[in-house]
Amino acid sequence: MTDPRPDAVLHPEGRINQFVIASHYAVRGTIYIEAQKRKASGKEVIFTNIGNPQSLGQKPITFPRQVISLVTCPQLLEHPDVGKLFPEDAIARAKKYLDNLPGGSGAYQDSRGNMYVRQEVADFIARRDGHPANPEHIFLSDGASPAIQRCLNMLIRDQKDGILLPTPQYPLYSASVALLGGVILGYGLQEEQGWSLSIDNLNEVVADAKERGLTVRALVVINPGNPTGQVLSRENMEEIARWAAVNRVVLLADEVYQTNVYGSRPFISFKKVVTEMGDEGKNVELISFHTVSKGVFGECGRRGGYLEATNIHPGALDQLYKVFSIGLSSNVDGQLMMGLMCNPPKPGDASYEQYEQECDAIFQSLKRRAEMISNAFNALPGVSCQNVEGALYAFPRVRLPEAAVKEAEKKDMGPDLFYCLELLHATGICAVPGSGFGQEEGTFHFRTTILPAEEQMPRVIDLFTSFHKDFLQRFGMPSKM
Amino acid sequence: MTDPRPDAVLHPEGRINQFVIASHYAVRGTIYIEAQKRKASGKEVIFTNIGNPQSLGQKPITFPRQVISLVTCPQLLEHPDVGKLFPEDAIARAKKYLDNLPGGSGAYQDSRGNMYVRQEVADFIARRDGHPANPEHIFLSDGASPAIQRCLNMLIRDQKDGILLPTPQYPLYSASVALLGGVILGYGLQEEQGWSLSIDNLNEVVADAKERGLTVRALVVINPGNPTGQVLSRENMEEIARWAAVNRVVLLADEVYQTNVYGSRPFISFKKVVTEMGDEGKNVELISFHTVSKGVFGECGRRGGYLEATNIHPGALDQLYKVFSIGLSSNVDGQLMMGLMCNPPKPGDASYEQYEQECDAIFQSLKRRAEMISNAFNALPGVSCQNVEGALYAFPRVRLPEAAVKEAEKKDMGPDLFYCLELLHATGICAVPGSGFGQEEGTFHFRTTILPAEEQMPRVIDLFTSFHKDFLQRFGMPSKM
Question: Which residues belong to any copy of the Aminotransferase class I/classII large domain (chains A, B) (predicted)?
């Protein structure tokens, strides 16, 4: 194809910021674009590429939607028939929010978010951890992503600053670090030990980085893991926190899947662990992230999230406030959704039972699906999948036949991408190749969400199973099983 | 004060990204913080520091809120009494959106925004300009700000890349350019010629920049002007567009105040001007921005906005899509608000008359307030204010007495900040010093919005007038009037 505009000022070759060019974002990469084409051609696509529960039919929880609906349209509250359409606790909560939102939901709020909502978040954290939380250290954001990016922006000073990211990791991190001109320092998670984090491994990566003249600035930990689904033990968390303090790196704790825990090991927040470490914990500079997009709410389209800063220098917090203020204010519906997630109906409230039932039904179904999916993958020849203890994904390893690897090479693509494209073309299932998340050299994985509707799951598994068997028939069995 | 954490990894002195430290954001700076303190102490504050209409009592337009309320709570649509609380066209529109939003408003949409809404935006642009618009070139965003920042991120490659910004300008631009490590190249607007843009001035700034070894990458034009309120003539726009093409810079057209035009000169979009320039226009790389936060909607808290790319290289558009995709999706309520602004009720629809009346009432009131406020400033000794032809602000010049300038020096602050702080302390009026927007050396200005409620305006003007007269009595008359 001839270049339609070779002299463009914004030309992708050499005339666009190199960091923009260098950043990759697999979740919406090649596979996603191919899937969109397939969909546009009228064929079925089963989107398991992204944790977007409501796009796969998960129903929103009723109560928070009712409250936001009323806040959006305050004149409803004065209508004599409002009680026919809305329960009384939703009406009361909407009034409470309107009393505490200067200008209502159509006005910019403080750049850190509305104070009433931040207090609801602080109260939630205090209940969860058994330790007080300070709303001045809580900033609301349009989902967790911009909060994470703003923290990375403060941390990355130049191309000599490195950020420790798990391998595999959620590609927001690698894309953002690249975009900000920093260095991605991948530390491997140990697949055969249930994707656990090894301090030895961290030390090796840091030693190597120092040799390259880099300064390590932060350690990102995703717990429960994305895409890997593991839940950290308290012992491991203490070790990690101590390591961060000793090595003088900020600990960035991505805890957006804290509600999505299906196994016997409970979620514990880094805030709690650090607080309970006493004086030693005071040296841990910690920023934790949460969202309304995951959990059982799955309210991705709202873009609600928060960060909580622990042991962060007040001058640094001022700088963070400034960076937030350049973006003016996060969207107020997203802020309210976060408040509603943190402060749900209580026993005795009109909506309490329905709320609990709805949340529990989604949670139990996710738990069943997590098990169904890892069992199904483990039943396939050449595929192994760690137990999905948490989050919304499975990240199975697939041994690919040599002939398939060669076929991929011929097509100038990674073997995992080739596998996922074949899967998409054969079944409509849109999974993301492991290369988008990072994987140990010579191993191949893919990520699927556990989000297809439960009643659809057997069919998805059947489609997958047939595809995989066909694939092995076409290309032969992998040499190492 | 002793440093509470001198060894912090995130320490504001030397251990935070210098570009973060260097960026300033006046609208929420010293004055805003002082105003918050005043408010916390129980005293009245009249916030004229920021274009946040609903925080000052502007009522939201009813129809779009009704639609969003229904989309938020889709079960309302099935309730037998829904017709008592919502008009039929709001119900129909909500159904239309739900049919076209995969997963509803709780799901991530395409990273560029939902296609149905983007088509509504494209149709609006086509009606406005008389030329077709392509939804593939329209990206929805959380307000205009992140769209602007993402474009600047593509443009600024290193510290040798400069962006032409008007002086005075809206500080989002200077803050973002500084944050991205680029060079701010201010070009002066000519106050005495109604804040018009002079090509000679652009040429001077560019010549100087080239001498400094800089590459000029983009020209930001805010039309109608913020904080200056001028509306560009078509002749001037053609000249600017031609200049951008010849000088190989991308034209970034901030047109968020396009509805807020109060004088006889109409708003014309750069898209229309460039399209009608024929082959010459094809060399103009243009990105235009719009929002739901201004106009008569004033829906700041929704964070809805769009960019339209004209003559941008397809490879650059792909890169922009990637940058948007790292942020996943803008908030869906904000997307819908943008769709509703672009596609309002039509004659014959149940809500048409009320919608038109509400919009017109806000518009006429803003127009009256724009005139009241510039007249009031012009009546004060030592103050001159250009006619407010558009936008939501007045940016009067104030001649300050020498004794006041000295007093400010003693307090180690700019004379305009000193004036605004005295104003705040004496009256509760929160205006922003001109230094936050940029002003010609040796001149002093401040920005106020025209947004205090119309019935409150005479009191605000009285407060201001008394303050200013007292100020001159305390410090003497300025030497030059």
Answer: 88-461
